[in-house]
Amino acid sequence: AWQEGGHFYIQMDYCEGGSLAQRAHSCMSDEQLWAAACQSARGLRFLHSHGVLHLDVKPENIYLAAGTWRIGDFGLA
């Protein structure tokens, strides 16, 4: 994240695996869903320990990249 010319920017990696919402409706086993939930919970714990609140956690904002689930779409968090 950075500020330039009075504007704030956040750069995120491209997540080729799509969102949890997209994948949950098509091709995920119970074990894969559990792994996504656990990784997401660990990510939220990390964010909260650093004073960051997401305020809009939902399957549409959890993305798969390189085999790891990532929380995205922070908006005004």
From TrEMBL:
It comes from the Eukaryota. GO terms for molecular function: ATP binding; protein serine/threonine kinase activity. Residues 1-77 form the Protein kinase domain. Its EC number is 2.7.11.1. It comes from Chlorella variabilis (Green alga). The keyword NADP does not apply. Gene3D superfamilies: Transferase(Phosphotransferase) domain 1 (1.10.510.10). The keyword Metal-binding does not apply. It holds the Pfam family Pkinase. Keywords: ATP-binding, Kinase, Nucleotide-binding, Serine/threonine-protein kinase, Transferase. This is non-specific serine/threonine protein kinase. It is an enzyme of class 2 (transferase). It catalyses: L-seryl-[protein] + ATP = O-phospho-L-seryl-[protein] + ADP + H(+); L-threonyl-[protein] + ATP = O-phospho-L-threonyl-[protein] + ADP + H(+).
